[in-house]
C-alpha cells in the first residue's frame, strides 16, 4: 500500500510541477490574477454593469481601451485627460460600440498637474451620476533619459504628475467613498514601481512613491472592508507612452519612438485589469514573458534579479545610445539605420 502511494506521488508531483512550469511559461499575469481570470467573476457580468467609473488619462493607450471595454460591460463613464477633442472621440467610439447612451458618458477635461482644479472636477464628477463606484488613476507619463543628463525640473514634474496628481484626485474621491462605505480606487503603477530600470530613474521613483502611498492607504482603511485599493503593475504594453515620455529637458520630445508591436496588446492588459477589479485583486502583475519572470525574481531572489536587471538594463542603455527605442531589440544586436 505504502509502495503504491509513493509511486503515485513520484508520478503526480513531477506532473504537478510540470503543469505549473508550463502555465508559468505561457502566463502573462501573476497567479492570483490568472486564477481570477479562469475561475472568478467575469467583468462583463453584473459585477461592472451600471457602475460609475472615472478614468483619468482616457484619451489614449490603456485609458482609452479601458473606456471601450468598460462601455461594452455596461459601466457608466467619466472620461478625463487634458484634450477635450480626443475625449469626445473616445466617447463617440464607446457609444458606437456599446448599448450606452449619451448621458451615460461624461467628458470631463482635467490636467493632473493643476491640483487647484481637482476639487471642482471631483464635485462635477460626483454630482453628474450622484456617486462614483470606481476611480481608475491611469493618467501619467514615462521617461527616456539618463540620470546624468536629466534636468531636476523633469524629476519635479514626474513627481507632480504621476504621484501628486494621482494623490490629489484620490484625496478628492476617497471621502465620498468612505461616506458611502464602498468603492474602488485602482491605480496604474508599473513594473518599475516594484523594480528599477535605466532611463527611467524619475518615472520609477514616481511609481515607487505610488506603491508606498497606496499600500499604506490600504492598511489605513481596514475599517472600510468594502473599499478596494488596488495597484496595477504592467510591463511593456502597446500605447503612446514612449511617444509622450519626458526626456532630459522638460519640453524636448522623444526622438525615436520605435516599433511597439512586440509589447503586450493593450486589449489584453485591460482585460486582465478588469478581471482584477471585478474580483477585488489588490495588486496585479501583468506582463508577457520573460518580463513576468522578472517580477517573481525581484520578489523572491533579489540577487538573481540584479543580474537580469543589469543584463536587460545594459541592453536598454546600448539601444538608447544607438538612437533606437530603449525597449527594442532586447535580445539581438542593436542596429542603427
Ligand atoms: N504602456 C506601458 O508600457 C505601461 C507600462 C506600465 C505602466 N504604464 C502606465 O499606464 C498608464 C497609462 O499610460 P499609457 O501606456 O496608456 O500611455 P499613453 O501616453 O498612451 O496614455 C497616457 C494618458 O495620460 C494622459 N496624461 C498625460 N499627462 C496628463 C496630465 N498632465 N493630465 C491629465 N492626463 C494626462 C494622456 O493624455 C493619456 O491619456 C500610465 O500611468 C503609465 O505610467 C504604462
TrEMBL record:
Q: Is Iron-sulfur a UniProt keyword of this protein?
A: no
Which Pfam families does the UniProt entry name for this protein?
A: adh_short (PF00106)
Q: Which UniProt keywords apply?
A: Oxidoreductase
In terms of CDD domains, this protein maps to: 11beta-HSD1_like_SDR_c
| Listed PROSITE patterns | ADH_SHORT
GO MF: oxidoreductase activity
Q: Which PANTHER family match?
A: DEHYDROGENASE/REDUCTASE SDR FAMILY MEMBER 7-RELATED, DEHYDROGENASE_REDUCTASE SDR FAMILY MEMBER 7
The entry assigns this protein to a family as follows: Belongs to the short-chain dehydrogenases/reductases (SDR) family.
Q: What is this protein called?
A: Dehydrogenase/reductase SDR family member 7 isoform X1
Task: Identify the taxonomic lineage of the organism of origin.
Answer: Eukaryota, Metazoa, Chordata, Craniata, Vertebrata
